[in-house]
Amino acid sequence: MRKPKSIVSLFYLAAVLLCFVGWWWGWRGIHVSDPDKRRVYAGLEQGLLRWELALPLRSTPPPSDDVVVVSFGENATKVYGPLPWPRDVFAELITRLRALGSKTIVMDPLFADPQLKFLSPSAYQSLFPALNLRQIRIVNPHNYVGELVRKLAQQRTALERRLAAGQLAPTRLAAFDQQSKALISLSRRIAAGDASVAFEAAIRAKRDVVFPTDYSNAPMFAASPQEALQLLRRQAVPGVPNPERITQFDHVLTLYPRLWQQNPMGGMNEIETEPPHHLHFIRDARALVRFDGRVYFASMVRALAHYLDAPARLAQMRDGLHIVLGDRDVRLEEDGRFPLAYYRQDTFPRALSAIDVLRDRMPRQAIAGKLVIVDIRNEQTASFLRRMTPGHGRRWVSDLKATFASNMLLGHRGPTIRRPTLIPLLEGALIWLIGVAFVWITYRAPLWRSLMAGVGMFAIMAMINLLILVPQGLWFAAGIIAIEIALLMLLSVGAHYLLQRSERRKLRRAFGFYLAEPVLEHMLQDEHALQLGGERRTLSVLFSDIRGFTNLSENASAEALGMALNAHLTQLTRAVFEHRGTLDKYMGDCVMAFFGAPVPIGEHALCAVRAALRMQQQLQQVQPVWKDNCGSEVKIGVGVATGDVVVGNMGSDTLFDYTVIGDTVNLASRLEGLTKVYGVDVLVSEATRQATKDEVTYLEVDVVRVKGKQKPVAVYEAVCEGKPDEARSMYHECCQVGLRAYRGQQWQDGITQFEKAAKLRPEARLPALYLQRIARLSVDPPGSDWDGVSEFHQK
Predict the structure, then answer these.
(1) How far apart, in whole angstroms, are the C-alpha atoms of residue 518 and residue 511?
(2) Nearest CA to 216 among 252, 172, 268, 264?
(3) pTM over 0.70
(4) What is the pLDDT of residues 200-255, one digit of tens each?
(5) What is the rounded CA–CA span in Å between residue 155 and residue 147?
(6) Residue 328 and residue 411 in contact, taking contact as beta carbons nearer than 8 Å
(7) Looking at 443-574, which runs of residues are DSSP E strands?
(8) Which residue, 241, 353, 484, 749, could crosslink 741 as a Cys pair with Cβ 3.0–4.6 Å?
(9) Residue 231 in contact with residue 287, Cβ under 8 Å?
(10) How far apart are CA 668 and CA 179, in angstroms?
(11) What does the alpha-carbon distance between residue 382 and residue 765 come to, in Å, rounded to a whole number?
(12) How far apart are CA 178 and CA 32, in angstroms?
């Protein structure tokens, strides 16, 4: 059968066109500056690139041990309450870190605002352990200091009583007095809006603390006042070659002026708030940032310069701009970025607890001689201090800063991702090439080959991208290729589905009128069902014919005869379909059917015999129709034979029938004709009887040699399913004994048995037939070589 290949062609051409449009529109979406307008395709490209960049992490060496992160975690929230916290907490941490021997301290929190709020006294318990602050509750926040002084005085009175009773050491009371004065002093500074004195003093004590400055191009960015910006400009890098290449930012948020006056080290935040180049993840850090025409180092560059005791300087070399830190030389991108080389999560050190440092539970070797990054990690900061990274999902900004520091200390560098002008042109060419190749490969291919072609193309594209392009730092938009292949595979499935629907409609038109619905549904699953040709199979064939139909048609009008015949054939067809048969054809008043094809049936012989018996029962329902229209009732004869046939589509390539041919078909037709001779309703062959003898009762009728066959065939009357009644059983016994006597030329015994059978069933024709044969043969006996076979030379 010729398939409508135009359906496939239209589908595939539409897929190529849609992919080209999707490539142009999707890639345009990647470069839209507004993140809300990015296309879904852009997100797919970022996801693929992030996964590709994560693959080399499996072989990445471990980070430097000289960089550690000290973090205020959720346990700090339980101690100090929600943010913001007193600056004295950070002052105490800086002091403790210095005591443990830290070399350089980098503050990740941005101290752009001097204002603080009052906290519950219990939040200061770790700073003032001699005080019982957990029992103090401030009722009136507006009189915070007064209530605090009064309740501390009550605690001191209780301690004096215990001291007088000898239950308290004098040193305990002295510690209480000393820490009470410190807490009251802190509370008064908070009340006066000047709570950063200790923090400022800690910064001023030693120039080893580095603070970040945030930047953005967003108009709503909360920029710092001019006084702070003037102090920030002191940190600018002089003599930068080609400063216009460094990315410019319009707004910055830096330290508040009084903190700048303590002369700390400062630098730009190397990790941006929004990923650069509209990526959805962080792949590099900004070592240089330009603001207000000046270039600034990142805070981590300043920290490394202090840590290595080597001033940071810029040098323009043949391969680009470099940062020189003593004997270390780090190459940057043209715009001042540094590609990060990420480390595996299992090799990256866990953040140390700031609370352990404050409570003297941190071993000295964990901090001594290290570059320490201080950050805050809790539910309040998780939403804005975590960034998407290749391979490990979201990670804390402090971890990214530590990665940047380790990269610069160890000379590690991440892949440089470039996208030359040639790459988009190559993508467009590949889109068309893959589309055309897919159509060419799968045009006349089955569905599984189409899907395999798609998978193979995707695998080849992925290998080229991962093994060649990504190691060379080329960003190839693999997402659109993957979308195209997936779309082609999807549309290939759709095209094959439409083809199958078309073929199913043709099958229904071809078989719907002579196949039972379950048989038809099973056949529709085979896409080769309508191919011209046949196959050899063992089936059961049934013929049914009306006896005396020619004489009947002469005495009835054509209209009446047609009405009765239609009702008759409807009942017989229903019997065929009820037993999973296939209606081959109507030949006038004759019905031809076969069982076991196109759907294989293990018990096709039994189905055929049951259909034959059912036809005799169905005939009783249409007898009134025959009598009303044609004036008399009718009888039918049914012949069933089982054996090898050739079944399939027979005919020309434009018009054919699904039918059976072979010797078994001829035998079934002959058996149907012999029912009139023997006066029985259903005759079956020996093969049919052997296949169904356990379910159906048979009466052997004769051994015959029909026209067209040299080999004699035993034929049997199908009486009923199960066991017959007693009278019928006696009749069968007489016939069987009489038949053996007949074949043994024992004529008198044969006469006796067939006469008994005739008395049991006077209407039966079989006993009378054999009585006639015995009467003839007894006068002219056959020879000794007589085999008892009856020969029929006419159809």
Answers:
(1) 12
(2) 252
(3) no
(4) 888 888 889 998 888 777 654 556 677 778 878 888 888 888 888 888 888 888 87
(5) 12
(6) yes
(7) 533-546
(8) 749
(9) no
(10) 116
(11) 101
(12) 61
